[in-house]
Specification:
Layout: H1 6-40, H2 45-56, H3 64-71
């Protein structure tokens, strides 16, 4: 597949960033509402932290390498272990 022109890749980056910011705000609002609900029901700080940890593992992002390949971008990889 031929790499996309830089102006298209730049536009994709701007759109993705804008969408990520909106998603971040929605996730923060949902998590804060969860914590308020848990606190009101008498949950301990440890229980609320556990809830947040569980939320972090519910859904991961798409494979970054596949997305980068699609856009014709190079993925940084460490050269040493």
């Amino acid at each position: 597949m031929k790499a996309l022109p830089n102006d298209l890749k730049s536009r994709v980056n701007r759109l993705a960033h804008a969408e990520a910011l909106a998603h971040e705000a929605a996730v923060k609002a949902r998590l804060l509402a969860d914590l308020e609900r848990l606190q009101a029901s008498g949950a301990t700080t440890a229980e609320m932290l556990e809830h947040l940890e569980q939320q972090a593992h519910i859904e991961g992002p798409e494979d970054p390498a596949a997305v980068s390949d699609m856009l014709g971008l190079k993925v940084w990889k460490p050269t040493r272990a």
